[in-house]
Sequence to fold (725 residues):
Amino acid sequence: MKKIKETLFGILSTRLGFVLTLVLCYWLKTMWAYHTDFSLGLENIYQVLLSIFNPIPLTLLLLGLSLYVKRTKVFYTLAWVIYTLLNVLLIANAIYYREFSDFLTVNALLASSKTSTGLGDSALNLMRVTDIIYILDYIILIALFATKKIHTDKRPFNKRASFAVTALSGMLFSVNLFLAEIDRPELLTRSFSNVYLVRALGLPMFTAYSGNQTYQAQKERSQSTAEELKQAKAYVEKHYAAPNPKYYGIAKGRNVIVIHLESFQQFLIDYKLNVDGKEYEVTPFINSLYHSNETLAFSNFFHQVKAGKTSDAETLMENSLFGLSSGSFMVNYGGENTQFATPNILAQNGGYTSAVFHGNVGTFWNRNNAYKQWGYNYFFDSSYLSKLTKENSFQYGLNDKYMFKDSIKYLEHMQQPFYAKFITVSNHFPYTSLDGDSKEKGFPLAKTNDETINGYFATANYLDSALHSFFDYLKASGLYDNSIIVMYGDHYGISNSRNTSLAPLLGKNSETWTDYDNTMLQRVPYMIHIPGYTEGGINETYGGEVDALPTLLHLLGIDTKNYTMVGQDLLSTQNSQIVALRTSGYFITPEYTSYGGQLYYTKDGTEITNPDNTTEEKVKAIREAAAEQLKVSDEIQTGDLLRFDTDNGLKTVDTSKINYAKAMSQMKAIEKKLGDKSTSLYSQNGNKSTQSLFNAPSYLQLSETVTSSSTSSTSESESSSTSSE
Ligand code: GP9
Ligand code: MN
Fold:
């Protein structure tokens, strides 16, 4: 025992031994933090191993730097300083996480003077007795030095050996990056959420990454001027599509309920899946809405997202501005930029209260910050809903039926009119969300050789029946009659790399599948259901997610003339019907479809290989118009130009007044304060809950049509690898 002690103290009394001990201590404390303070949502053994490994490379690299120093005092001081900085970072994150369930970004650090992000006095309240663990090593090491059990090493560390330590840590770091990329492709370009980054790369690396993001955003922001906004506004003014009097204001004053249909493509509408000679209607309820004359439905509506996927769709739908050409706008700019988004606009035009309901953690896509900037009063993430179990959830959170059911108890306390967005998740890649739920077996899997495609229909069917339950509740509670329900598919569910396997299910040949076919599959539903309205129908106007907001606002009787939006009202007669996909050179109009270098007739997909002069000119003009729309949007978004937009009649959001904690008591306090004037459903219902009106779905049985057709739906083509799901 004594021997071991002596050896240990001997090691600690060398410079390298000291540095390695610090690395070890930091690693131990990180593991402690990972398990007690942070919830990393580790899903498999690979991610567990990665999280065990990830604190080491950068810690070794940083602490290893001190080994280059010759002078004893300077060496020890530097090692202690670096070590302390790393510790401050760890402890600050642990404490911050207890309050915000998120990691400290450099953005949040810089903004900590603002009450919305700073912890202020509450930091002390967040401390726990066990936090002593975070400084235990200091106590022990200092005691050992003071009692001369260990001593400082006066011998400078060999230069070459120092270099070897640096090289080794650099190599370990590359291994870490490589393993992280395997676990989650495109992690660094798409970022997803802070949790994903920390669990793959560790805290120090996450902070460096976040610092770089802030730096890049700040750089562009600081170079932009009010003059640029003027130019952007000139574009917006020129492209303004005036409201169509036939539709203007037809939904004025109603509640707006938005349902984000995860990964839902237009081809699912009216689709019947053929399995072993039987046909199964995938989304009977959504189909009925699509065909209802109470619905304004669009059949040529395209998603316009890129790497930010869901977050891009949200950005487009609620700002009428595009996401970024790389990464996610909500992640990179969400907490900082000035935005005039739907919740804010509706609050100031009709006194709307706003909320988002979503079964995943609030930090995903930086929603917890971006939503404040957009003016959302409440954000009900998974922490407000049923506890996640194997049965009711999967990697992206709580399944839709539970999410809708759980949201009622909050929705009924919202003051009306309200703007409430429900972001579904169950129909998300890899389409296995129902695997843990024994009650949800039933809808058949498709029989291609691509598992992803096979599961897609069953989860879409589940979403359909979840939506049906929710509509039943809306009707039973009476909310239905004074609301409109907006539904949209956020982006493709089956990526282009899988489309050849999907082709046979769509009655197409995988051999002759083209990029035109890929482009046509980027259609997603866009429907505005207006109970009591009878002049709806299927509208064939070509448009995209960027056009949704002006369309909606005009239906609500809010003119968008003064707002800086790059989309156009789809119901306006002045709409130009040019749909720009997020990549320049990719666009669709009723006449032409361009996919990078290829040009097609939209009608039938014939490729135009030798365009005549008139065609060439027409296409050139479209190409330029699409590119200009993207360019103006990018300038607004990356330059944070809306901070100069002071004469649009709207006030900016004061984010310090928004707090997503304890929403129920906030809502109840408002009800109490308003007394008789409270317009929440709960108040109107004589202070009684309407939760019991949400029935467990009784129509889980399939809507099955046996047909004579016996074509097997097995795809002959090869299964493709994952791309950007
Ligand atoms: C996560 C969910 C999925 O909370 O919205 O986002 P996606 O992967 O579709 O971008
Ligand atoms: Mn999505």
